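User: Batch of two.

Assistant: Item 1 of 2:
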Amino acid sequence: MTTTVAAYAAPAAKAPLERTTIERRAVGEFDVLIDIEFAGICHSDIHQAREGWGTAIFPMVPGHEIAGVVAEVGTGVTKYAVGDRVGVGCMVDSCRECDNCRAGLQQYCTGGGPIWTYNAVGKDGQPTHGGYSQKIVVDENYVVRIPDGLPLDVAAPLLCAGITTYSPLKHWNAGPGKKVAVVGLGGLGHMGVKIAAALGAEVTVLSQSLRKKDDGLKLGATHYHATSDPKTFEDLKGTFDIILNTVSAPLDFDAYLSLLRTDGAMVNVGIPEEPVHILLSSVSGHRRSLSSSGIGGIPETQEMLDFCAEHNLGAEIELIRADQINEAYERVVNSDVRYRFVIDTATI
């Protein structure tokens, strides 16, 4: 039997989200039914609800930063039990057979791609719906355990913002002796600063202004510079091993690439809606790299949660009611949040 649950959905592109009901599938043999307690609001939700990244599926229930408690498990489930604290991130399935899936890189599935938590079609042919809802049913292999040391409300954003920054920082070997610049101190950026500092790197924040400097230093940065000041790019030329760009607006990539050392990498995790442009000479002169990264696989997401629990790293959040979602969207677009909105799903 399917379950009818309350949710908040965008009925059409760019339309305000509104309260509705959706059907969750019956709990299958390997499924976990989760009572969602908190759901983070990611800028990706806004891009997709407003079709900034292309044609989308409506009505859309966004949300891929999900934290809750297991309410029911299928007869074949071995990883979780009723009462466990769990999370669901950006994907709920993949082909499971390609080389990437077998290597735990499900986010790079080549057998049809991952099935996203919302704005996608599941293997049952039905649209997926995300975390702005009271319950969700997910295969146990795409659920992660939230350690006891992490409160569920500050853990929810880790399922996207946390893993989106942790994965590239680990891949590009952020750690002692490395200088890391984080571009933008927002939902992604503030977690990038916390994680890079906890990994042992020397962290610099590059932001448009010095408005959030005190916050950046408290979060773990050693330095903080305003990119609106041309002198910043003169003074920091050739400084960084890694630049983690978390903003989703086009930048002067040639200027930022000049800040890398030889063999340095600029990794983009904010995805602009518009094309970006660079001069190849900006990378060729010092064997610099311009790259990107997409979330993380299930094993790495669990590793990230365990790391954050060990280092007491939760997101900085503003808890809101469900009827504040549309206001929160506007505030995210205007960079008016420190640093992640989280919906108390009991208010849906």
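Item 2 of 2:
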Amino acid sequence: MLKKSVYPLFFIPLFISGQALANEAPIKVKVFVGSMFEIGQNTGDKAGEFQYWYEKYFKNSQPITVKGAASPVFCNDNGVCGSVLGMGKVASSSSVQAILLNPQFDMSQTYFMINGVAGTPPSRGTIGDVSWGSWVIDYDLGHRWAPAEGLHDGQTFMPRKGYENIRSYQLNPTLVSWAMKVTGQTKLLDSEGAQKYRQRYPDDNARRAPKVLTGTHMTGDTFFHGPGMSKEAQYIAKLYGADDYLVTEMEIAAITQVIARTQGTTQRVFSLRGSVNFDQGNPNETTLEHLDPAPGQTAGGFKETVENIATVGGEMTDYIVSHWDTWQNGVPALK
């Protein structure tokens, strides 16, 4: 009798719980927001890449644990979901794959808002800029050697055969054009510290106020710095037939490859980056001095830039969600 009374009490609740989970419909995701890191908590402290998104979209959402993802996923009632993916190619792309393959989510019509901070060459961008990637390129898929061992087209890089289909992706030009139409005139925040720091550089683009623009986003697992590496990034961009190199970051090419494999398309991918540093020092400092600045000699503008990213990306996210009838089946023609 004792065994019969214990058996149903122990097993029935588990059985019902499993059935409930199995029968629950997946969350229909309209826009997925992927950031790379958060400094502390998702709200209430110094903001990293995800905090402003969290406070706008997910403050009342419950975390959804996904096996294999770096952090929980949050979803609101309007079909916007988001997560902190982890920094670098492996951490971020493995998180995206785990989320995409998880049956709790229906991402068959999802737009991917992949965003974070970045560096920019002073000849083309400045601190506080927000840019939409027109191309994403993997900086690492090739051969490199020491300059003393000879140059190839004036560079120490040569692409390796076999990577042609994954080393670069042109993101949907119509989607990028829509992003500029919706957000191109957005007023961006700036800081006094960034304004002073810009004046160290002679370039007109480095000295100007921040704005929204487009260009090639270059993905590398190393934080490459210096005019030589910057020229190499531009060389690779032009070698692959892409737009001018505008941003150096660590994730989007790998994430785009995962999306291409699992979704069969990259037509709904956004790469959104805000520039928090220059990819090289000014003419009066060495690359090492730029990498290891004296106290009080950093660029400034980080807080304003991460807020700019969420502001610009949020405008596009809200536009898609509020016009879902015309966006759910694909990117509308731009009129």
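Residues 235 and 278 are 18 Å apart (CA to CA).
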